[in-house]
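Supplementary Methods. Inverse-folding protocol.

Structures were first reduced to a discrete structure-token string of length 330. This string, shown here, constituted the complete conditioning input.
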């Protein structure tokens, strides 16, 4: 007889098997029937599309004007050199940096490999990948701009961001080489219909597979966090219905009806939207330049009148609101 439940079972087991460097097999179980694919499929898509990696986005070669040019003393032409460069997987050493510019000078005769590009700013996780052959007359001076990003960005979208003289490169940031899963049945008590997810994840070494999975889970949580908020719940019956609370965050600060002194202080500090004020703590408000106590009290009073409950908001939702405000600022 099938038992009546009031909530689905929650998986309790996870096994991690290291296949080789940067390659793991992850088993998670038991899921209720039909739940495994609901979890596995979006996670796979996020692993492939939203895991941050690094890629060169621009190259400058001394004496070269365009990608169909050639370099004196280098066996490969520039187009072939760029193709080989795309197979070199870089990693910015400082995790706080999202972009670095690095320069190199090589003299022949020699062969160039990924390991030759390791320096204080960047590492190379494909050190044995071949790049070019230089003869005894060659001198190759190059500069690279390496950025952190997600997914794939074509060179056409990068061109305008580069300094003069740089050739734009198609940027393939994704460090996940493989993300596949299988759904298997598993026996729980007398029920053979529970399920197990077996994930096979491999990266190029820019990130660890387990770290890539954590990134995907963070992205999923941040995308879903909006549903954890009551900001979008509006009483459509008309009884006790108030203005949609979420819209308050995206209103300009002039909607608060502040005095000229307070408004000008906020404007000089680059604060344009109510949400920026709502999501500041008291110390951050106090530290706004040229904001006196009288203005601070006025702003706090105006914010209190909005009656917005921040206690139920997740950090991910707050970050999402601030990101949207930044995009509105353009």
């Amino acid at each position: 007889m099938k038992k009546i439940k009031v909530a689905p079972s929650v998986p309790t087991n996870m096994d991690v098997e290291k296949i080789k460097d940067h390659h793991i097999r992850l088993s998670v179980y038991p899921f209720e029937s039909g739940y495994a694919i609901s979890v596995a499929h979006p996670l796979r898509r996020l692993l492939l599309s939203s895991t941050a990696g690094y890629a060169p986005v621009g190259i400058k070669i001394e004496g070269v004007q365009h990608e169909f040019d050639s370099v004196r003393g280098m066996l490969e032409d520039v187009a072939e050199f760029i193709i080989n460069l795309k197979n070199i997987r870089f990693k910015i050493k400082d995790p706080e940096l999202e972009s670095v510019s690095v320069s190199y000078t090589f003299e022949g005769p020699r062969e160039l490999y990924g390991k030759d590009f390791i320096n204080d700013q960047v590492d190379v996780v494909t050190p044995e990948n071949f790049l070019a052959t230089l003869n005894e007359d060659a001198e190759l001076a190059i500069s690279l701009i390496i950025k952190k990003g997600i997914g794939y960005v074509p060179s056409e979208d990068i061109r305008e961001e580069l300094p003069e003289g740089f050739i734009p490169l198609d940027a393939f940031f994704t460090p996940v080489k493989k993300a596949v899963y299988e759904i298997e049945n598993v026996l729980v008590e007398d029920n053979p219909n529970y399920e197990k997810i077996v994930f096979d994840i491999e990266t190029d070494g820019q990130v660890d597979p387990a770290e890539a999975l954590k990134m995907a889970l963070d992205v999923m949580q941040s995308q879903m966090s909006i549903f954890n908020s009551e900001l979008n719940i509006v009483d459509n019956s008309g009884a006790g219905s108030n203005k949609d609370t979420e819209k308050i965050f995206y209103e300009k600060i002039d909607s608060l009806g502040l005095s000229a002194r307070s408004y000008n202080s906020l404007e000089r500090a680059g604060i344009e939207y109510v949400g920026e004020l709502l999501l500041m703590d008291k110390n951050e408000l106090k530290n706004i330049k040229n904001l006196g106590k009288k203005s601070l009290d006025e702003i706090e009073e105006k914010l209190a009148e909005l009656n917005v409950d921040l206690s139920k908001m997740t950090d991910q939702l707050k970050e999402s609101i601030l990101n949207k405000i930044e995009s509105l600022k353009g």
